[in-house]
Design brief:
eight-stranded parallel beta barrel; binds cytidine-5'-monophosphate; TIM Barrel; alpha/beta; 240 residues; 8 strands
């Protein structure tokens, strides 16, 4: 593991181009603490691996959020390629099975550069965009959403993953089931006095801390703030 800190704020860099993402990060050029950032599919698919190198050169830690899900052999090889980018965290879908998640870990270990630490590997359980009703009627999963999330987290632990993405409201249950060391990465965070955007079940950074989240993923409350540095610092103050 390359991360001894078990609590941090991750800014979701949801920008369409590298230019826009780097312009946003320039707000932090004089900051002593360079924020941990999340690069998702939109930015990575538009800019390719070069954007990772550029962000790393600015001393930011990176969560590469590509949510891999394929046959174990393909995921293993893809993870070997991603490990070479030397990001700090990446992820797969737990629905890919324990075998696929274990292959992902093996691939990451194989691709980790000499002298570097393996990126943390996190499982996506059930996407929050999937309601329990749709999970049952379209994914044909008969269990409750909560049991499914819990079962996926247990599978991730069996496969030696480092944690899961979940709602802050589920963080306590996950820690109870998988242990305090098992990481919970939680989006859906809003300040007490702010707009919800399209998020439905939200918590404040302070509440996420009480609920036991290890990493909060915060996008628009920071990226769209009039003063992004102040918004980031407010998050840190409430959460760390
Ligand atoms: O702008 P906002 O704070 O809502 O951004 C949250 C980030 O976390 C986005 O990148 C979004 O895709 C991601 N996310 C989420 N809910 C999940 C999983 C990921 O909001 N269940």
């Amino acid at each position: 593991m390359n991360n001894q800190i078990n609590r941090d704020v991750i800014i979701a860099l949801d920008f369409p181009t590298g230019e826009a993402a780097l312009a946003f990060l320039s707000n932090f050029k004089d900051s002593a603490r360079k924020p941990y950032v999340k690069v998702g599919m939109e930015l990575f698919y538009s800019e390719g691996p070069a954007i990772i190198e550029k962000i790393k050169a600015l001393d930011h830690k990176i969560f590469l959020d590509l949510k891999l899900h394929d046959i174990p052999n393909t995921v293993e090889k893809a993870m070997t390629s991603l490990a070479k980018l030397d990001v700090d965290m990446c992820n797969v879908h737990a629905a890919g099975t324990v075998e696929m998640m274990a292959a992902a870990i093996a691939g990451l270990e194989a691709g980790t550069l000499p002298g570097k630490s393996r990126p943390l590997l996190i499982a996506v359980t059930q996407l929050t965009s999937t309601s329990e009703e749709r999970m049952k009627s379209e994914l044909f999963i008969a269990k409750s959403l909560e049991d499914t999330v819990k079962g996926y987290a247990e599978n991730a632990k069996i496969a030696r993953l480092d944690g899961v993405v979940c709602s802050p409201l589920e963080a306590g249950l996950i820690h109870e089931t998988c242990g305090e060391e098992f990481l919970t990465i939680t989006p859906g965070v809003r300040f007490e006095d702010a707009a919800m955007d399209d998020q439905v079940r939200v918590t404040t950074p302070a509440r996420a801390k009480v609920l036991g989240s290890n990493f909060i993923v915060v996008g628009r409350p920071i990226t769209k703030a009039e003063n992004p540095v102040a918004a980031y610092e407010r998050c840190l103050k409430e959460f760390i």
